[in-house]
């Protein structure tokens, strides 16, 4: 029966992919709309890994920097708090995330609801350029080749692309947990996600993506954070409230119907001696477009 369910589920996935009926960027954006008010739970745990990448010394007082897929504006706030004096542009596809950003009162930052790559492509067509691009935690949702190529065009010589992203080996067991529920309840499944296939394998893999498209690696690295709760309900709530499960609500016809099943599967698969936990494995990198003055 399990083999039959497995084959049936993947047959459905293949049919959806042939029809290009997978979770879209717009649907991911809608998922993040729903967690905009609770997204600071993510920042509270993972923000410390982003702060070392925020380098105000890279940018002059006349600089223009884009906070791409800005979420609730954590990177923009940190840049401003560290004395950044240039212009900031925050871009996110989620309407509610941008509304949260507008609570930030600063005449140096402009927040815009837009698809990340489309915004950069529009800039490129207009011949506009910037000194830096930050991209926090959104790389798996974007077409990397298209993103990096247009970012290279938009950046001035000597400009920086700074990113942090989940990588292969993150959320060990979570995908399997979700698939288990899907296999046992195929009638509840609407369509698949495909962000997983876009995860960089490790820091070297991330570096190769950028090197292949003309960037110089200034610094790359990787890390891991474990998140632990005393109950599977609390763990699931954190995963949901922080956007970690973004897109899962589009996989099921009715995610509320699936939630109890998901929690029970987490109870079986994520119990450790410390409680119920998941890992976040990530990579990060600072990349420079050659041709300008080095600020290493």
From TrEMBL:
Question: Which keywords does UniProt give here?
Answer: Methyltransferase, Transferase
Q: Which GO terms describe its molecular function?
A: methyltransferase activity
Q: Has the keyword Methyltransferase been applied to this entry?
A: yes
Which InterPro entries does the protein's record reference? Methyltranfer_dom, SAM-dependent_MTases_sf
Give an example GO biological process.
methylation
Establish whether keyword Signal is in the entry: no
- Tell me where in this chain the Methyltransferase domain is found: 60-212
Q: What is this protein called?
A: Methyltransferase domain-containing protein
């Amino acid at each position: 029966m399990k083999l039959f369910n497995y084959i049936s589920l993947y047959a459905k996935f293949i049919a959806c992919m042939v029809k290009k009926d997978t979770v879209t960027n717009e649907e991911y954006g809608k998922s993040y709309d729903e967690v905009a008010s609770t997204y600071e739970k993510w920042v509270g745990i993972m923000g410390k890994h982003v702060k070392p990448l925020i380098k105000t010394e890279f940018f002059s007082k006349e600089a223009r920097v884009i906070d791409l897929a800005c979420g609730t504006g954590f990177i923009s706030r940190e840049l401003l708090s560290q004395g950044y004096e240039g212009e900031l542009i925050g871009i996110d596809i989620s309407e509610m995330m941008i509304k949260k950003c507008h609570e930030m009162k600063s005449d140096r930052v402009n927040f815009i609801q837009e698809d990340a790559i489309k915004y950069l492509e529009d800039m490129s067509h207009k011949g506009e350029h910037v000194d830096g691009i930050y991209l926090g935690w959104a790389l798996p949702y974007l077409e990397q080749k298209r993103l990096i190529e247009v970012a290279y065009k938009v950046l001035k010589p000597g400009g920086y692309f700074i990113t942090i992203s989940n990588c292969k080996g993150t959320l060990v067991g979570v995908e399997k947990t979700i698939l288990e529920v899907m296999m046992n309840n195929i009638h509840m499944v609407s369509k698949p996600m495909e962000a997983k296939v876009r995860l960089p394998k490790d820091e070297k893999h991330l570096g190769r993506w950028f090197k292949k498209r003309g960037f110089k690696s200034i610094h790359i690295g990787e890390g891991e954070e474990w998140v632990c709760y005393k109950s599977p309900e609390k763990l699931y709530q954190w995963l949901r409230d922080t956007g970690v499960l973004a897109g899962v609500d589009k996989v099921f016809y009715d995610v509320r119907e699936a939630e109890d099943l998901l929690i029970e599967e987490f109870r079986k698969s994520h119990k450790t001696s410390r409680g119920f936990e998941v890992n976040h494995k990530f990579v990060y990198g600072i990349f420079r477009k050659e041709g300008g003055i080095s600020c290493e």
